[in-house]
Predict the structure of Branched-chain amino acid ABC transporter permease.
Amino acid sequence: MDDLFNPYYVDIVVFWMIYLLLGLGLNLITGYAGQVSLGHAAFYGIGAYTSAILSVKYGWNAWLSMAAAVVVTFLISALFGLPSLRVREDFLAITTLGLGLIAQSFFKNADITGGAYGIDSIPAPSLFGTPLKNTGYLLLVTVVLIVAVVIMKKMTGSRIGRAWMTIREDETVAQSMGINTTYYKVLVFAIGGAYAGAAGALFAHKVSFISGESFGFTVSATVLSMVVLGGLGSIFGTFFGVTLLYMLPEMFRLFEFELVDPKYLDTYKMMLYGILMVLIMRYRPKGLFGKNGTKLVNIRRSAVKTLDKGGDRVA
């Protein structure tokens, strides 16, 4: 089955799906709950290193190590979300940026992460004794992505999602409606981080080698650009933004445009992202497919919907 498709194109699709998982997690945090994060790559790295360390250094089965990576990232991301209880907006963005840089420094220097040498020989998960590679790995990532989308749709359509959106629009009003903002803000960081942790684990077992360079600020900025471009608070927007900004550089590579020198491709890519961000912030602050903010009267209605039928307020 691994020989059905060209491995190069399979890799492109696999990494596109991994970025989709990253984008969905960040859209939960920033798009739905309104908590600006510039350190999303830290969660990505935590998931990758956790799975790699457990499988390489402790001999865990790849499936178990990947599952453990999601759980560990969920817990650590909840701790990363604690600053959101004290700071907001620009101050929260700078705080998460600092936490992301601290995490990358840890990845690069700690003995358990292999320091500057990273971790190699990360095994691919096996199914009935056959390692999943190329097409097999593509199917695995596809299943994970479908499950992630279904879970996200159910969450954002439930009282949890309505509570997040109410906090995004006006945290003070959310508190006055009885919504436990502390609980929901920490929860969204934990769940959004778990999505990134799953992406990191899939990335680690796909490439078989990881180092701290793969989880820097550039990754956080890239994913944020994708989410903002596609639309805050929109699953379809995340798919659109990730697809556009991820596939565009690949189009340059595939068609070898003479105007794009391959050695300057990353520079051109970041310039393009910057220009698009400026244009989007100027003309479409919520992104191309982002949902418009609700008016104060609708905030009240949204908060009321989070109440149980029996009259109990959101915990």
Notes: The radius of gyration is 20 Å. The chain is about 70% helix and 0% strand. Residues 50 and 69 are 5 Å apart (CA to CA). The longest strand covers residues 126-127.
